[in-house]
Amino acid sequence: MIGRDLERAARLLREGALVAIPTETVYGLAGNAFSETAVAEIFAVKQRPAFDPLIVHAGSLDRLQTLAADFPPEARRLAEAFMPGPLTLLLPKSDLIPDLVTAGSPNVALRIPNHPMTLNLLNLLEFPLAAPSANPFGYISPTTAQHVGQQLGSKIPYILDGGPCRVGLESTIVGFNGPQAVIYRKGGIPVEAIEEIAGPVLVMAHSSSDPMAPGMLKSHYAPKVPLRLGNLDEMIRENRHLRLGILSFQRVFPRLPRDCQVVLSENGDFTEAARRLFAGMRYLDELPIDLILAEPLPEEHLGRAINDRLRRAAAGS
Ligand code: TXA
Ligand code: MG
Fold first, then answer.
1. Model confidence over 242-285: pLDDT tens digits?
2. 126 phi, psi to nearest 5 deg
3. Is pLDDT above 90 for 215?
4. Which of 120, 206, 208 is nearest to 160 (CA)?
5. Predicted TM-score (pTM) of this structure
6. At the N or C end, where does the chain have fewer CB atoms within 10 A?
7. Ligand 1: does its nearest atom lie under 6 Å from the Cβ of 53?
8. Is the CB of 131 under 6 A from ligand 1?
C-alpha cells in the first residue's frame, strides 16, 4: 500500500516490518538497523547477496555520531558541509551496528537523507534505519513511490510516498585512508564539491565484482532491454533494422518516433538530467523495443555519476 501516514510507517518499523521511504536521492527499502531479523528481511526482499552491505540512515548529526566508533575531523568537515544531503560516510562502526548490516566490515556507511518526511520519521523512531535502494538487486533504482510499488508492492506492507526524488542519483560514498578522502561511489554530490571541502580525493575505479571493494558491482542498474552506450548517430545508423529507444542528453532525433526518445535535459543541465535519468531508463524499458541507445554526458560535475550509472547499465546488458 502507498500512502503518506508517518505514524503508520513508524508503527510498522517498530514491529520489525519493512517500509519503503522517500529520500532526496532514490527511494529506500528501510528496516530497523538494530534488528537482525529486520535487516535479514531487507536482504531477502531485495534478493541482495549478503556480502553487499547496507547504508544506515539517521535523522541528525548527533544521532549519526553514536553509530560511529570514531568521527575524525576530515569526516566532520564533510558532514558539516553536506549533511543532511546526498553524502554517505564510511566510518569505523560502533558496536550498536549488527555485523549483518556491514557484511562483516569494520566500517559502517552512514547518511542523513535530506527529505522532510523521512527526517520526521527518523526523528520519531528510537533506532536508525538500514536502507538500500528499493529495487530488486541489480535493477534500476526507484525515484517515485509508484516505481517501488511496481516491483516490491506485494512484498512489503507500506510505501511512504514523498513524491519524486529531487536528486535522482544515489548518494556519493566517501571513506578515508588516513586523512585522505576516497570516493567509493560517485553520486548526488559531485566530486568537485567534495574536493572543495576535502582537498584532492582519490576516486576508486569500480571495475570489480570483488565484494570487498565497496561501492558496488560493475554490472548494475540494468534494464531488461539491452542498453548500449556510445555515439548516438553512429549507433542509430548501425541498428536501423531494430526497434530503438533513445536516451539522449539534449537532442531529439526527428527521424525517429518521439515517444521512443527520452531527452534528459534540453538545456544541458546536469541536475535536471540526474533527476530524470532513472525514470527515463524505466520508461524506455517498458516500451516494445529491441535496444536502448544512450550517450555519455560530459565527464564533469553530475555528468560523472550519470556516466557511471550508464556504463553499469550497459555492462549488465
Ligand atoms: O542514496 C543512497 O545512498 C540510497 C538511499 C536509499 O539512501 N541508498 C543506496 O543504497 O543507494 P544501496 O544499498 O543501493 O547502495 C549502497 C552502497 C552499496 O554499493 C554498498 O556496497 C555500499 O553502499 N556500502 C554500504 N555499506 C558499506 C560498507 N560498510 N562498506 C563499504 N561499502 C558499503
Ligand atoms: Mg542500489
1. 999 999 999 999 999 999 999 999 999 999 999 999 999 999 99
2. -90, 0
3. no
4. 120
5. 0.96
6. N
7. yes
8. yes
